[in-house]
Amino acid sequence: TSPASDRILVRYDAGLINQLWSPIVIERPGGRVTIRDLLEGIHAFFQTRLTHAEVEYISSLGQDNYRLLVDAYRRRTTQRRLGVLRDWEWREGLKRVDCLGDVRWWWGAWVTHNSDGTWQLHLGLMNSTHRNT
Question: Which of 88, 102, 118, 123 has an alpha carbon within 20 to 30 A of 47's alpha carbon?
Answer without folding.
Answer: 118
